[in-house]
Amino acid sequence: TTPDAEKAEKAAYSLLDYAVLVIDGTVGIQSHTETIWQLLCEYNIPVFIFVNKADRDGFEKVNVLNDLKKRFGSECVDFTQDKSSLDEEISMISEELLEHFLEGDIDETFVKNQVAGAVAERNVFPCYFGSALQDVGVDSLLEGIEKYTLYKEYPEEFSARVYKILYDNQGNRLSFLKITGGKALVKMNIGEEKIDAIRVYSGEKHQPVKEAFAGSVCAVSGLSDVSAGETINLNGVNLNSSMKINPLLSAQVIIKDGTDIHTVYRNLRVIDQELPELSVHISNYSDEEQIQIRVMGRIQLEILQSLVKERFGMDIEFGPCRILYKETIKSPVMGYGHYEPLRHYAETQLRIEPAERNSGVIIENECSLEVLDSNFQNLILTHIREKEHIGILTGSPLTDVKIILTAGRSHLKHTEGGDFREATYRAIRQGLEKAENILLEPYYSFTLRVPIDCFGRAISDIQRLHGEFMPPEMTETEAIIKGEGPASEFMDYPEEVISYTSGKGVISMREKGYRPCHN
User: Fold this and answer.
1) CA dihedral 177, 180, 182, 184 (to 10 degrees)
2) Rounded CA separation 404/377 (Å)
3) In what side-by-side order are the strands of the sheet with 217-221?
4) Rounded to an integer, what distance in angstroms lies between the CA atom of residue 132 and that of residue 135?
5) Nearest by Cα to 469 from 453, 457, 480
6) How many CB atoms lie under 10 A from the CB of residue 146?
7) I want to staple 353 with a disulfide (CB 3.0 to 4.6 A). Which of 32, 174, 230, 402 is the partner?
8) H or E element that contains 249
């Protein structure tokens, strides 16, 4: 499992009320299951667990349940056990429940509400066992979901989260929404756009509706400016809500079938809008146009290659992946920008300070209105915000800094709005040229599971790849190693793991932000 797999689903995870985690009872908890569990924890989503294939040879309920408790916590409780044993376990959920059980005062409604509340707060994870293929245990799971889930209360004012963008067979752009407040109506204005139609989907089939209420999911047409992961309201997109993901790797798109480069770019842009973990750009390199695609991991490129072939009939491949670096500074500096051609004048003064790692660019204002009018201050702040500023070491994006407006000057007669754009950009550049600059690279966190006889090789590899790791967990058959390492060193390592463990080892990796380059 690589970071591209989990990032593709982050927007969807953020809108779940509850989740049912399905586990293969014959093979137990696999690495990708742990990745899903980590995301469910990250988004604080209540979970019901269904252990499938409980009718197969080799299934041992006790072993699976013990593994669940070991990996996911003692909150995993078997809700299919006999009533007295179940009562004993759930009595430990809260002091109120324990008191009722000790006194023999068992009010089923009270217990149900207490358990439902505990599930919602992730204090207990009900576990069910069965076989989906044979329809065994499924009814018990569904009854448990109905009994132990709580309905959310939503605000009356309209709001929604966009969790997916797709184009239908007629080329209509569809924005899939989870309504998180009020209701959506056909012809309702969202900022400067309007909802043209609302669809409710069941699989590939859909039916048109005139309205969709809070708590429901639907697809709407007519919204061209929203992206997966954003929240919207009647005023449009909430600018602070974007979940657009910063890719870690870049590769050149190589066109093999002679398709025009602009046609390829246009089709890739369609997929770019649907998948927030992609980013497509067209640039000139040595007077030759090239398409560069940014992704989270190499496996994503293989999936994209098949998707482009299936959907658009285009045959493409990709050049070698290269790391996307970032830059920051070590200590505060002042930056001054002066712009004064004929009949123009503007000055900007900024303080640029290092900020917490992985905080991005933070913009603040300390400029007095006695020094510079508010309209010019707002112009400067807008110009700081409007583009991605680059560092001076490699031309990589600037990050983990505070840019603070401290002063500025204008001319009563000659200053125009665009003058402050030039002065602001120059102030940032001048400050960076004086600063001690630091190159940053992306890191992965990883969980590596290998057979015991491969443990020594695994430790040696991690050290060779400049990784760090915590004390390993050892079982009778395998070693579990958790740690972190630079993406530049680890991005090809999953193939090595498969090779030296003969397919028995697995590694899951997640983006862990940026750090100073290891080398």
Assistant:
1) 0
2) 11
3) 205-209, 197-202, 217-221, 173-181, 159-167, 231-233, 236-237
4) 5
5) 480
6) 8
7) 402
8) strand 249-255
CA quadruple 350, 353, 357, 359: dihedral sign: negative
Helix (H, G, I), strand (E, B) or coil at 416: coil
Q: Give the span between the Cα atoms of 427 and 383, in whole angstroms.
A: 11
Q: Are the C-beta atoms of residues 220 and 195 closer than 8 Å to each other?
A: yes
298-312 helix and 261-274 helix, angle to the nearest 10 degrees:
110
Residues 310 and 267: beta-carbon distance below 8 Å: no
> pLDDT per residue over 331-373, tens digit each?
999 999 999 988 899 999 999 999 999 899 999 999 999 999 9
Question: What are 154-199's pLDDT values in tens digits?
Answer: 999 999 998 888 888 888 899 999 999 999 999 999 999 999 999 9
- Does 10 have pLDDT greater than 70? no
Inter-residue contact 94 to 114 (CB < 8 Å): yes
**Cα 96 to Cα 90: distance, rounded to the nearest angstrom:** 11
Q: Under a CB-based contact definition with an 8 Å cutoff, are residues 409 and 434 in contact?
A: no
Q: Residue 420, class by beta-carbon neighbours within 10 Å (0-12 exposed, 13-18 middle, 19+ buried)?
A: buried
